[in-house]
Amino acid sequence: IDGVRVGSATSGLTSLQDLPLEQIERVEIVRGPRSSLYGADAIGGVIQVFTRRGKGNAGVRGRARIGAGSHGLREASAGLDLRGARGGVGLDLGHQSTDGIDSCRGIGAPWYAGCGMDNPDPDRDGYRNNNVSLRADFAASEAWQFEAQGLRARGHNFFDADPAWGLPDNSKVLQQVVGGSVRYRPSQALGLRLTVGRNIDASDNHLGATYMDRFETRRDSASLQGDFVVADGQVLTAGFDWLRDSGGVDGPFASFDTTRGNRAAFAQYQGRFGAHDLQASLRRDDNDQFGGKTTGGFAWGYGFADGWRIAASHATAFKAPSFNELYYPFFGNPALRPESSRSSELSLGHDGGGWQWQLNAYQTRTDDLIVYDPTLFIANNIEQARIRGVELSASARLGEWDVRGTLGTLDARNLSIGTNHGKRLPRRPQRSARLDLDREFGDFGFGLSGILEAARWDDVANSLRVGGYGTLDARVSWRFARDWTLQATLVNAFDKTYETSAYYNQPGREFGLGLRWQPK
Fold first, then answer.
1. Which element (helix H / strand E) includes 235?
2. How far is Cα of residue 508 from the mean position of the Cα atoms in its chain?
3. Residue 316 neighbours by CB distance under 10 Å
4. Measuring CA to CA, which residue among 202, 271, 262, 203 is closest to residue 235?
5. CB 78 within 8 A of CB 92
6. Confidence of residue 111 (pLDDT cuts 50, 70, 90)
7. Residue 129 pLDDT more than 50?
8. Which H or E run contains 324?
9. DSSP per residue over 247-298, as a string?
10. What pLDDT is recorded for position 42?
């Protein structure tokens, strides 16, 4: 988020659900292994979230939005930017709350998986989020630029629990990202950037009003990167990364507190030679717990004919286990090994004649893939796994319609020796497709999105099947005045009943209505 590494070192996940959409300007996804510049654990890609930034000439600009919808949805946000000749400051505030749905349908004896209870609370599981975003930037000269930003989101999340187990049924969560950067660019041939930041991911868990336990992670990071133009069309990037994860759990069922640091040096070369372009990268990590590891990658691309392009790449990466996977009682496994991967990709694409399309074929082999093993009730390593797939993406302007679509097939297999050899990895659909259609009619906008996903398995042994599904979403907007827009959404229009994880309900048909004020 804004150049700062985020994620929980206890769960190993990132709390994307707590990031307020109204505070986000854009999201960029970099596909494929990107271990050299972004971190050795960037096995499948990198998600970069950029919060709102003040833009344009000097002056004062405001914005606001209110919304409501099904399941008691209530939303409100407002923001203000003040820009001067050399920089500016900005503030955004937001609120979201919903009464939610009954999120867990239960399991039934003798199975223990999914929601993890036989008789979950038959109540609605609500959520609320209050958030604030602050930012400032200043250009001291043509060469020097300074930026600072902070995002803080406080949430309260209710979920199902079996009263007989005495486990928490609600959490007060915190997601906070604070960071800053200094950029020095004295010429087009040289650029230096120093970025520092801290991410706090925490949750205080309760059973009713009774405190039960607390999870907290503090992730501190710093990066120094230099970009050097060594010749026309050739750029060398080099730098250093530092990362320290601190955190743990405090409660009656589990208690631990630990810290792990990582230092790395990286380098990348990019060059263009006529119709050919090359990229080569290398990274060396020194992890406090798992020692040294070298990763890297190589990519080649070739543009030919009229708008055609072919590319190939190969890269390696590795990922350390999370603190919960290592230490959490009755779940953790201190003997876990880090994941290591080797990925290759081949792509063919064309851009021209009003069409853009690209076909990607890829394969990733992972040693010591970390999964939860329900037969052992702990996190465990799958000795070897292979993920192989093909994806076609395309976009076009057909008359007055903007059309975008993706079609993919995935074969994710457990290749370890044993009873699960050849079985599919859990929670990965074998086929998926999406189609988006959008059109503007004067002051009106209209859009449709169709999503299809095939069945998947929810466990390592392939004994628990989750069925496939298809949904249709619709959206309408009306700009009834210069600065005012009315927006309506309809999600899962045909009220499809489906699950993406076993035993967890989806909300069914939902609608939303919003009013936005944003001066041009």
1. strand 234-250
2. 24
3. 19
4. 271
5. yes
6. very low
7. yes
8. helix 323-327
9. EEEESSS-EEEEEEEEEEEEEEEEEEETTEEEEEEEEEEEETTTEEEEEEEE
10. 84
Cα 82 from Cα 123, distance rounded (Å): 45
Residue 463: both structure tokens together: 């004994």
* Cα 99–chain centre separation: 25
Span between the terminal Cα atoms of the chain, in Å: 27
- Single-letter amino acid, residue 330: F
Interacting residues of 35 by C-beta distance below 8 A, sequence separation 6+: 41, 42, 43, 281, 283, 295, 296, 297, 315, 316, 317, 318
Helix (H, G, I), strand (E, B) or coil at 18: helix
Q: Which residue has the higher pLDDT, 407 or 249?
A: 407
- For the beta carbon of residue 336, count every other beta carbon within 10 angstroms: 19
- Give the length of the chain: 520
Tell me 107's DSSP state: -
> How large a percentage of the chain has pLDDT more than 70?
97
**ω into 110 cis (within 30 of 0):** yes
Q: Do 366 and 385 touch, CB atoms closer than 8 A?
A: yes
CB atoms within 10 A of CB 144: 13
Q: What is the pLDDT of residues 319-374, one digit of tens each?
A: 999 988 998 877 888 999 999 999 999 999 999 888 999 999 999 999 998 887 76
Instruction: Return phi, psi of residue 108, to 5°.
Output: 90, 130
pTM: 0.88
**Chain position carrying tokens 């009306």:** 478
- Condensed to tens digits (0 to 9), the pLDDT of residues 451-505 reads 999 999 988 889 889 999 999 999 999 999 999 999 999 999 999 999 998 888 8
Of 483, 458, 411, the C-alpha closest to 64 is 483
Question: The tokens 């930017």 sit on which residue?
Answer: 81
Please report where in the chains the tokens 């300007």 appear, as a residue: 25
Torsion of CA 153, 427, 408, 509, to 10 degrees: -60
Task: Please check the confidence at residue 169 and state whether its pLDDT lies above 70.
Answer: yes
